[in-house]
Specification:
mainly alpha
Length: 75
């Protein structure tokens, strides 16, 4: 009976509109995160080869130190 008295121009309850705003903001945040990931993926620096080679040198030096004799000295 009460639904017949409401006009069609009235908005629904404020609770449902705030839920829509929350859902819309989550969708926008997820879209921006995805867009940032895609931009970061395609704009990676191309000079990573030099960084990798220095990393490999440090890794080899570290692994050379990881011997049983060297570990026993620290115990």
């Amino acid at each position: 009976m009460w639904t017949a008295l409401r006009s069609g121009a009235e908005q629904s309850s404020p609770r449902s509109s705030s839920g829509r705003v929350c859902a819309l903001s989550l969708v926008v945040a997820a879209a921006l995160l995805l867009l940032g990931f895609i931009i970061g993926w395609f704009t990676k620096p191309t000079d990573e080869v030099t960084a990798t080679s220095s990393h490999e040198k440090v890794k080899k030096a570290f692994m050379a130190e990881m011997k049983a004799e060297n570990i026993k000295q620290f115990l």
